[in-house]
Amino acid sequence: MSNQLLQEARTAVELAEQMTQHAVTPEEMQAAQIQVEKARNNLLSAFANSTTAQKEQLEEIQQSLNQIDNEYQ
After folding, report:
1. Rounded to whole angstroms, how far apart are CA atoms 8 and 44?
2. Which domain holds residue 46?
3. What is the pTM of this model?
4. Where along the sequence do coiled-coil regions lie (predicted)?
5. Listed residue (16, 21, 9, 17) closest to 61, CA to CA
6. Span 33-70, pLDDT tens digits
């Protein structure tokens, strides 16, 4: 896996976190939820193409995404 997939996953999770923290209107909340799903898909793609060391990093990112998703629900 290139580091690009890992970076894309990290960036998507960071964006999801920002969007969920600042979402106020129903439209913003919906956009935030869509971003959470995009981040989840980026993580799955990155996991599928990663080394063992990269998977460890991705697991940490996944935990962050899970926390975001749990708090947002």
Report:
1. 11
2. 3-72
3. 0.89
4. 29-71
5. 9
6. 999 999 999 999 999 989 999 999 999 999 999 999 88
